[in-house]
Input
Amino acid sequence: MITINQLSKKYKEAEQFSVSKLNLEILDGEIFGLLGPNGAGKTTLISMLSGLIKPTSGSFNINGLDYSNSKKELKKHIGIVPQEYALYPDLTAVENLNYFGAMYGLKGSDFTNSVQEHLSILGLSDFARKKIKSYSGGMKRRVNLIASILHKPKVLFLDEPTVGVDVQSKTVIIDYLKELNHNGTTIIYTSHHLNEAEHFCTRVGIIDHGELVGVGTPKDLIAKQKDAEHLEDVFLALTGKALRDHV
Output
């Protein structure tokens, strides 16, 4: 589904590459976890793959479409759930979803029914006509998720989709994503919740300093790392224990 060749990104005036000569293949139907410390390059990589920022060098294609000559068509096949809420706070959930749906040319009774169905599945029906600014963090995350899949993308990028939410919201979101994947959506997901990633992802890639330092199923990575019992042990062994706080 996704082929990445020697992909690199260096921001203007930066001293180092945020992503450096990265090669990776993500298969159709995978739930692929992109894991790494703060500043490792996860968000930069997703931003390039989703067309939000331009690579410095290298190439990639999604569903057979090359970024360099099929940008507009490629964007029709992807959905993005950003780390920050991408919603209008003074609009209701329904108004937000209608707005984003219109951007994809979606309208009519089928679209209206689809919005209502997704709101119901994610436990938001009773709050559908309340303004987003009155929502809790978990509720905003769920509306953000719906907005990203209205056009039924083949690939869904999720940047920290469960950060800052309670256990109930996290469970609903993960179950919803599993159902989307079961129905054919390939998922690329970043998270600092390593226990969640270990049980959610079919395969993971650990990135550090813009480079892949480990790729495989959680089970295989744990088996290969001496004395590792969980994915967190593998993560620390490959990326170290030094603090990665950034201003």
The first strand starts at residue 2 and ends at 9. DSSP finds nine helices and ten strands in the chain. Residues 77 and 153 are 5 Å apart (CA to CA).
